[in-house]
Structures are given as C-alpha cells and as structure tokens.
Design a protein that fits this description.
- The chain is mainly beta.
- It is built from no helices and 8 strands.
Length: 136
Amino acid sequence: MATVTLSDYLTLQDGSRRFDGTPNAVDLNFQLPDDFVQGTNRAKPVIQFKYRARQETDLQLWINPDNNDRNVQIDVVFEPSSVVRSHHEFLNGSLFVPGEQNRIRFILVDHSVFDDNNNDIGISDVLLTFQRRIDI
C-alpha cells in the first residue's frame, strides 16, 4: 500500500471579529484529523486571513498557547489601511496535535493605542491549509 499526501483545509472563522482593546485576544478552537502532517521543509501548514487595521497594530498569533513557550508564530505590525487586505504565514506544524483539539490565539499586543472608536483591527475569513497523509 502506498502513502501520499494531499492538501486539505479548515475554515476556522467565516465572518469578521474586531479587536478594539476589549477583548485583546480571540481564540479559535478546532480539531485536526489524525492523519495531519505536522510538517516538513516543503509541507508546512499555512494560515490565511483578511484584516483591516485603522491604526498601526501589533498582532501576534499563538498555536496551542498552553502547551509550550515556543508557540508565537506571527508577530507583525499591520499598517493602517482603508481597505481589507489579506495575510498568510507558514506555521510550525509540530506545535499542532493531530486528532485532538487545537487552539489558535490572536493577541493584540499593545492595545494602549486605542484612544477612540476609530482605532481597531478586524480579522475575518481565517483559513488553515495543511497536508494529510493518506494510504492508497
């Protein structure tokens, strides 16, 4: 029996969430299949999402934040924009647990910048693409 990998995805969030200082973190919980490929140099999970920042905003993404201290995968400053933009990032697949509940946490690092209702960031349409190992 041969083994192949194929690409699959999970929709983690369909719709929009705003960070406006309260709350400063959003958790997305999901279960990965048992045959999830934790990653190689060529088969890494990819997260994709849309965003709109009204002010320069420092955002982090953590994978399973309760499991270890190496889980910060994204620490990026988004520039203000009047239009929705997209962002994608390769992730460390070894931080995910195949066949079990996992969590991705978006954290607004410095929410002291919020001094009125116009300063926020919206995150929408979060998609996780990954590889699965299938016996054929």
